[in-house]
Amino acid sequence: MEILKKPVLTEKASILTEKSNRYAFKVDHRANKIEIKAAVEQMFGVNVESVNTMVITGKTKSRYTKAGNVTGRAPKYKKAIITLKDGETIDFYSTI
């Protein structure tokens, strides 16, 4: 099971990073906080202070087609907010 799927690189997440040394990740919906902490520490070589998780429900989407209005839902996902110890950072762009 791949625990960390991808980082969340939104404007809100970058403000969180700048102000309080916190990073957001999309994670596997079966992963718990202990597994997420271990995965981040092993992948990036940092010390994690705390992990907060939340399940984000998918937005409803609709579009107009020849067949009329088609409505659906974006998939839900689990998001983890990782707080690192003071003085530590994660550089997402160094591995590209």
Automatic annotation (TrEMBL):
<comment type="subunit">
    <text>Part of the 50S ribosomal subunit. Contacts protein L29, and trigger factor when it is bound to the ribosome.</text>
</comment>
<dbReference type="Pfam" id="PF00276">
    <property type="entry name" value="Ribosomal_L23"/>
</dbReference>
<dbReference type="InterPro" id="IPR012677">
    <property type="entry name" value="Nucleotide-bd_a/b_plait_sf"/>
</dbReference>
<dbReference type="GO" id="GO:0006412">
    <property type="term" value="P:translation"/>
</dbReference>
<comment type="similarity">
    <text>Belongs to the universal ribosomal protein uL23 family.</text>
</comment>
<keyword id="KW-0687">Ribonucleoprotein</keyword>
<dbReference type="GO" id="GO:0005840">
    <property type="term" value="C:ribosome"/>
</dbReference>
<dbReference type="InterPro" id="IPR012678">
    <property type="entry name" value="Ribosomal_uL23/eL15/eS24_sf"/>
</dbReference>
<comment type="function">
    <text>One of the early assembly proteins it binds 23S rRNA. One of the proteins that surrounds the polypeptide exit tunnel on the outside of the ribosome. Forms the main docking site for trigger factor binding to the ribosome.</text>
</comment>
<dbReference type="GO" id="GO:0019843">
    <property type="term" value="F:rRNA binding"/>
</dbReference>
<keyword id="KW-0699">rRNA-binding</keyword>
<keyword id="KW-0694">RNA-binding</keyword>
<protein>
    <recommendedName>
        <fullName>Large ribosomal subunit protein uL23</fullName>
    </recommendedName>
</protein>
<dbReference type="GO" id="GO:1990904">
    <property type="term" value="C:ribonucleoprotein complex"/>
</dbReference>
<keyword id="KW-0689">Ribosomal protein</keyword>
<dbReference type="GO" id="GO:0003735">
    <property type="term" value="F:structural constituent of ribosome"/>
</dbReference>
<dbReference type="InterPro" id="IPR013025">
    <property type="entry name" value="Ribosomal_uL23-like"/>
</dbReference>
